[in-house]
Amino acid sequence: MTASPPGLDITGLETVYDALATAIDQAGPDKSELLLVKLALLNAQALGDAARFQQQLQTALQDL
Protein backbone atom coordinates (compact mmCIF):
# COMPACT_ATOMS: atom_id res chain seq x y z
CA MET A 1 0.00 0.00 0.00
CA THR A 2 1.34 3.44 -0.96
CA ALA A 3 1.06 6.15 1.66
CA SER A 4 -0.54 9.34 0.43
CA PRO A 5 1.37 12.57 0.97
CA PRO A 6 0.36 14.58 4.01
CA GLY A 7 -2.23 17.26 3.38
CA LEU A 8 -3.01 20.55 5.03
CA ASP A 9 -5.43 20.85 7.90
CA ILE A 10 -8.09 23.57 7.94
CA THR A 11 -5.73 26.08 9.55
CA GLY A 12 -3.09 25.42 6.90
CA LEU A 13 -5.65 25.77 4.11
CA GLU A 14 -6.85 29.08 5.58
CA THR A 15 -3.26 30.32 5.72
CA VAL A 16 -2.69 29.35 2.08
CA TYR A 17 -6.01 30.91 1.03
CA ASP A 18 -5.14 34.20 2.75
CA ALA A 19 -1.67 34.26 1.16
CA LEU A 20 -3.13 33.52 -2.27
CA ALA A 21 -5.79 36.22 -1.94
CA THR A 22 -3.15 38.75 -0.89
CA ALA A 23 -0.88 37.78 -3.80
CA ILE A 24 -3.76 38.09 -6.29
CA ASP A 25 -4.55 41.55 -4.93
CA GLN A 26 -0.85 42.49 -5.14
CA ALA A 27 -0.61 41.31 -8.75
CA GLY A 28 -3.67 43.33 -9.73
CA PRO A 29 -6.31 42.48 -12.31
CA ASP A 30 -3.92 42.75 -15.27
CA LYS A 31 -1.40 40.25 -13.87
CA SER A 32 -3.48 37.94 -11.65
CA GLU A 33 -3.94 35.33 -14.39
CA LEU A 34 -0.19 35.26 -15.06
CA LEU A 35 0.45 34.91 -11.32
CA LEU A 36 -1.90 31.91 -11.11
CA VAL A 37 -0.30 30.21 -14.13
CA LYS A 38 3.18 30.72 -12.69
CA LEU A 39 2.03 29.42 -9.32
CA ALA A 40 0.43 26.35 -10.91
CA LEU A 41 3.64 25.56 -12.81
CA LEU A 42 5.78 26.01 -9.70
CA ASN A 43 3.48 23.74 -7.72
CA ALA A 44 3.46 21.14 -10.51
CA GLN A 45 7.24 21.16 -10.42
CA ALA A 46 7.22 20.77 -6.62
CA LEU A 47 4.62 17.99 -6.86
CA GLY A 48 6.77 16.15 -9.39
CA ASP A 49 3.89 14.13 -10.83
CA ALA A 50 2.24 15.27 -14.08
CA ALA A 51 -0.61 12.75 -13.80
CA ARG A 52 -1.42 13.87 -10.24
CA PHE A 53 -1.35 17.50 -11.37
CA GLN A 54 -3.82 16.70 -14.15
CA GLN A 55 -6.11 14.97 -11.64
CA GLN A 56 -6.01 18.05 -9.42
CA LEU A 57 -6.67 20.27 -12.43
CA GLN A 58 -9.78 18.27 -13.32
CA THR A 59 -10.96 18.48 -9.69
CA ALA A 60 -10.46 22.25 -9.72
CA LEU A 61 -12.57 22.56 -12.89
CA GLN A 62 -15.56 20.89 -11.25
CA ASP A 63 -18.44 23.11 -10.13
CA LEU A 64 -16.99 26.39 -11.46
From TrEMBL:
Protein name: DUF2783 domain-containing protein
